[in-house]
Write a structure and sequence with these properties.
Blueprint (H helix, E strand, L loop, with lengths): L2 E6 L14 E6 L3 H10 L4 E3 L3 H8 L5 E4 L8 H5 L12 H12 L3 E7 L10 E3 L2 E5 L19 H8 L11 H6 L4 H11 L9
Parallel strand pairs: 1-2, 1-4, 2-3, 4-5
Antiparallel strand pairs: 5-7, 6-7
């Protein structure tokens, strides 16, 4: 049976890179330049340039698995720590709106990913490495999540870590794009957890 997947805030597709099997992926990305890169990496996926938050509300019932990685800067410890450079702003509550929607209305499997915030979470997540995950299936704390990024990583290191090479791509912030990319191994193991595939790798 084909698994219909909705990949929200898809970026260049780090979470999706190692998904395999009989899958049909619809990727939602609002930035046309980033969406074009995603499409080049995953030519068989359907890519739609639209607001992911609104698309989710209107289309969630069509899918078997939903992954969402909403923008994280307004929740980030790093942004708050640099308070002298960044004025206080309201945290983007679209994150929690999506969690509540999927918890109470969606019948399939789902996962929402974000950074560990500077505040106590309003809805308890699973914590893996430096990220929070909300899902309707258990995600173990010792899930294998890749090597992780160091503070002084350069683009060459990050391309190798994430498995994407943006060297010949112009017109984007390459460092921001690759750092925003979910580690493919994390995406792979969470997808396997959702559908109870064998050989789950823990550390």
């Amino acid at each position: 049976m084909t698994i219909k997947i909705l990949n929200l805030y898809a970026g260049i597709g780090g979470n999706r890179k190692l998904w395999d099997g009989d899958i049909e992926v619809t990727a939602i990305e609002i930035d046309p330049k980033i969406a074009k890169i995603y499409q080049d990496f995953f030519p068989n996926d359907k890519v739609i340039v639209i607001d992911a938050h609104e698309f989710l509300l209107s289309n969630f019932e069509k899918y078997d698995f939903i992954w969402s990685s909403p923008p994280c800067p307004t929740h980030s410890k790093v942004r708050k720590a640099n308070g002298e450079q960044n004025k206080p702003i309201y945290p983007d509550m679209a994150l929690y709106q999506e969690i509540i929607l999927l918890q109470h209305y969606f019948k399939g499997k789902w996962c929402i990913e974000n950074v560990i915030a500077f505040y106590e979470p309003l809805i308890k997540p699973f914590e893996v490495a430096k990220h929070w995950f909300w899902a309707n299936f258990p995600i173990p704390k010792n899930l294998h999540h890749g090597r992780g990024m160091g503070k002084d990583e350069n683009l060459k290191d990050l391309y190798k870590l994430k498995g994407f090479d943006l060297t010949n791509i112009e017109g984007i912030d390459k460092m921001k794009t690759i750092r925003n990319c979910v580690e493919p191994e994390t995406g792979k193991h969470i997808f396997e957890l959702a559908f109870k595939k064998p050989q789950l790798k823990l550390v």
